[in-house]
Amino acid sequence: xxxxxxxxxxxxLLHEEGELPxxxxxxxxxxxxxxxxxxxxxxxxxxxxxxxxxxxxxxYETDLHAGSGHEQTDLVFDGLDTAAEVLLDGQPLxxxxxxHRSYRFDVTGVEGRLAVRFASAYAEAxxxxxxxGERPAAYAEPYPYLRKMACSFGWxxxxxxxxxxxxxxxxxxxxxxARIARVRPVVTVECGEGVVELHVEVERTRVEAHLAVExxxxxxxxxxxxxxxAGTVRLRVPDAGLWWPRGYGExxxxxxxxxxxxxxxxxxxxxxRIGFRTVSLDTSADARGTGxxxxxxxxxxFARGVNWIPDDVFPSRITRERYRERLRQAAAAGxxxxxxxxxGIYESEDFYDACDELGLLVWQDFPFACAAYPxxxxxxxxxxxxxxxNVVRLMPHPSLVLWNGNNENLWGFRDWGWEGRLGGDSWGxxxxxxxxxxxxxxxxxxxxxxxxxxxxxxxxxxxxxxxHGTHHSWEVWxxxxxxxxxxxxxxxxxxxxxxxxxxxxxxxxxxxxxxLAPDSPGMLHHQKADDGNGKLRRGLARHxxxxxxxFDRWHYLTQVxxxxxxxxxxEHWRSHWPVCAxxxxxxxxxxxxxxxxxxxxxxxxxKPLYHELRRLYADRLPTVRVRGGGLxxxxxxxxxxxxxxAARLRRMxxxxxxxxxxxxxxxxxxxxVADVPVPRELEPVGAKEFLVADVRGGDDPQxxxxxxxxxxxxxxxxxxxxxxxxxxxxxxxxTAHTLVRDLLLQADRLQPEARADRGxxxxxxxxxxxxxxxxxxTPDPDAARAALYCLEPIR
Length: 795
Ligand code: BMA
Fold this sequence. Notes:
Elements: E1 3-6, E2 12-15, E3 18-21, H1 28-34, H2 46-49, E4 58-65, E5 72-77, E6 83-88, E7 91-97, E8 103-106, E9 111-118, H3 121-132, E10 153-155, E11 158-160, E12 170-175, E13 178-190, E14 193-204, E15 211-217, E16 220-225, E17 230-237, E18 254-262, E19 265-274, E20 279-282, E21 285-286, E22 289-290, E23 293-296, E24 299-301, E25 303-308, H4 320-332, E26 337-340, H5 349-358, E27 361-365, H6 379-394, E28 400-404, H7 409-415, H8 418-422, H9 429-443, E29 449-450, E30 470-472, H10 475-478, E31 492-496, H11 504-510, H12 521-525, H13 532-541, H14 551-574, E32 582-585, H15 608-616, E33 620-627, E34 630-637, E35 643-653, E36 658-668, E37 672-677, E38 689-697, E39 704-708, E40 723-728, E41 731-736, E42 740-745, E43 755-756, E44 761-763, E45 768-774, H16 781-786, E46 788-789
Parallel strand pairs: 25-26, 25-32, 26-27, 27-28, 28-29, 30-31, 31-32
Antiparallel strand pairs: 1-12, 2-3, 2-4, 4-9, 5-8, 5-12, 6-7, 6-9, 10-11, 13-14, 14-17, 15-16, 15-18, 18-19, 20-23, 21-22, 23-24, 33-34, 34-37, 35-36, 35-38, 38-39, 40-41, 41-45, 42-44, 42-46, 43-45
Bound molecules: beta-D-mannopyranose.
Beta-D-mannopyranose (BMA) binds next to loops.
């Protein structure tokens, strides 16, 4: 039987003055940090001080005892970052140049000092650039010339911390006769039966040995012979429970076990967990253009998505628990689709395992982002090898529903001046429209592929044409106001978003000793977007009076504005289902403490946007829309049952006076939207008035509320807010005496670890809310009051 032994002990990192203990898996930065050689690059402006690390060569060493008792011993690296030479007692075993691949070396019978010598990623990428020629890119860093996580070189939310190291596990595998080299599971559902086809490849030391494989899943067993080095086992599981995305059904998972057998017994075992479901992507043309609708088990769905970036710029630090926590946060916000963005990585098993269990659909980008990518060697061969390996590695996961060729590269070619600058040079089209779809069709035929995001389906339309396929909506953040989202009904919004600073406690930790101001040195350093603060300020000024010299108020208002912006997009787009079939918010998470588009900040704290997502992504969302010169209440119902009941409408003034009231019945079919006209006399007029819609279906435990203010906040004469605050262990209760809009308890100001269970709440006079607070040991009403923010009268 194959024996696998981790090789994680005894590693050292060679350093100018000697050697340091090294973590494997790990990376140079985290080893230097642990040894006190560098300061924490996440704090203050230390990032700049450690830039030298990415420019050096680094060597890791340990002792290797291949041992015996077996015919062959392999040294297996699940991941090396990136350009490295592997040596044994100074003799080369091999070279690597791709972070996204694993590597295996035959070390049978050898002993000695194992060294992994990493070149600087800059040196390697620049050398390749020298050979293949320069290509246009969104950032002036050499990420298109090396198969390495692109955002390691910095991004508009990420630091430039160019890593090196043994970033995934290493082990020795000792085996005799044969081992399982690859299992490619094609999982489908046919007439209610779960079908698994396991395509097995083996590696042999003995050509003549008679080999077979036996597989088991869901109580069913099957056997097949290995002919040469390949064989296929097919299993049919009657009455297989279907795997559904969360909110649509259960997530039954089945253990699959495949054993490689020789006369004498078992040689090797492969174990994975699978789920039975079908997935399709409908991109057919219709009267509005070209759709982009995912269907799981035949159920067409509006994807409630978020974009995912590497959760740490040092990905070797992300534990299984941390993946689970971040994805649990996504699921708890009502998210059902996570897009793994192409400037990052093919994530670890821990990520996809959590998605399988939580019922989160995964859209996986191939790692290409925001650049023209050369197609010459050595890159082309690396791209094919990495795609083949990762497609097969990730295939078992039922959560994975879509492969995507790249992020914004088809768009960039057409729109960002690349086409002219390239002058006929390769730029990646051959990957996205040739190589990658071929690899997916050959290896993973049961999963859809799309060439890029955004992409209109062909060159017949502009790649970012909202009427065709996927769309990225960035003009709104970059140049316009978020009211601009309402101008279009794209078929699928794969990116859109708005920035806000992280939680106060996150800033406090990241910028020790700094007197915080929107433009204080650390704040500016932790803002990586082009004119980011200018866009924040202009975006804020369109809605609110920008507070001068009051950081706390600025911090609160920019966070409110972020939530408002994303709400403006999602409420509008969901109300246009099924024309629009998904929104993927840029972005769920961060990779360090930074002002960014994230809903969950770099320390894992939830911004007000996060809580707003729970409302926006709930199965049932009432929203007031302007349609054809009047107002309608759109009842968005993504639940499997119809939603019917009555909406109580109140036309109110901000002073609390009810100016008109009425009740209208509504009925939205299952997974459908119903527009209910708001009676003319209840439409609010002018800056002082607003509409309150309390919408309650027959079975709903309580009403859901939609608010509609016709004027921008900066014109609304909000009253001076008056409210009482009481505290109890784990709770803060606020009772309003006036209209209190966008009340927010910043729990991390009570105590850095404290968390509130809700974000922005608007109370009408006389209404009360109880905010649950975890991790606050000394409840005190004055402290609670000081941590409460809400909108105030215009000064
Ligand atoms: C899109 C993304 C990212 C970027 C984000 C915000 O371009 O694909 O590259 O971080 O917008 O600018």
